[in-house]
C-alpha cells in the first residue's frame, strides 16, 4: 500500500532547488511520485514503504544539502 508524506524542507533558495529534489526523489526505487515546491518549502512523496523507508527518503534530501525539518 502506498504512503504519502509531505516534508518541510529548509534550504531551498531558488526554484531549481525544488527541481533537484524532485528529480532525485523521483529516481529512487519505491518512490511512485515526488513533487517539491520552492514557494512552500515542502516536498511531497508517494512511496511504497515495503520498498523504501521514509528515513531513507529524508537521508537522500539531506545528502543534497537541504535540511528536513519535519514531516506530517
Ligand atoms: Mo538555485 Mo538550489 O541556483 O540547490 S538550485 S540555489
Automatic annotation (TrEMBL):
Q: Which residues form a coiled coil?
A: none
HMA domain ranges (all copies) = 3-69
Give the highest taxon in the source lineage.
Answer: Bacteria
This chain's protein is named Sulfite exporter TauE/SafE family protein
Part of the intact protein present: 4 to 75 of 622
